[in-house]
Amino acid sequence: MNKKTDLASLRLSYSQNELLEKNVLSNPFKQFALWFEEALDAQVLEPNAMHVSTISDGKPHGRIVLLKGFDENGFVFFTNYESNKGKEIEKNIFASLTFFWGDLERQVRIEGKIDKVSVQESDEYFHSRPRGSQIGAWVSNQSKVIENRQVLEERLLNLEKEFEQTEVIPRPAHWGGYRVIPDKIEFWQGRPNRLHDRILYTKNVNDWKIERLSP
Predict the structure, then answer these.
(1) Where are the domains of the chain?
(2) Known catalytic residues?
(3) pLDDT in tens, 165-190
(4) For residues 25-46, b (16+ Cβ closer than 10 Å) or e, as one string?
(5) What is the radius of gyration, based on Cα positions, of the chain?
(6) Is 87 within 8 Å of 102 (Cβ atoms)?
(7) What is 14-127+173-212's CATH topology?
(8) Residue 16: is it exposed, middle or buried by C-beta count within 10 angstroms (0-12/13-18/19+)?
(9) Backbone angles phi, psi at 158, to 5 degrees
């Protein structure tokens, strides 16, 4: 087999860092903020890119979206409510997020319930976006089958003309934010010999339980 296609031989030895119970913060949101800042400092490509998994008819569906905010209330992203993911969320209120920062040999997995953010939050973020992105939210009927690229281009031209004299473009009712409210957050740090560090935070009534998982 050509070396370029010999998948069995592709491997890295992770040895940059360690993740020990004595060093992690008691609050997983603060631990995430620390790691996120370190990803920014390391100039990881799009450190806010995350894999969002939803369920439909018992089957998992995943895609990459961008994290747009987080605090102790949860992790926020924005999308089309009428997209496939939006429809799946309507039927199943549980979702998971996965961040992978390969340059730092780190991964974060987040599981919990998902709900829409407030109308005010969606409006504020929508109007903070570039004007082209705002119009783009009107252009795309996300996840719907279209004949070709020209359909989008023509709709974009028509909407640019329609909004030409509009100073503040209204947010489409079908577009807004979701917040994943976690009950579990796992931090993964690559280690030599595939004996990786895995620290799991599980939500209790008033605090978080911290446990080490076997790699």
Answers:
(1) 14-127+173-212, 130-170
(2) 194
(3) 999 999 999 999 999 999 999 999 99
(4) eeebbebbeebbeebeeeebee
(5) 20
(6) no
(7) Pnp Oxidase; Chain A (2.30.110)
(8) exposed
(9) -65, -40
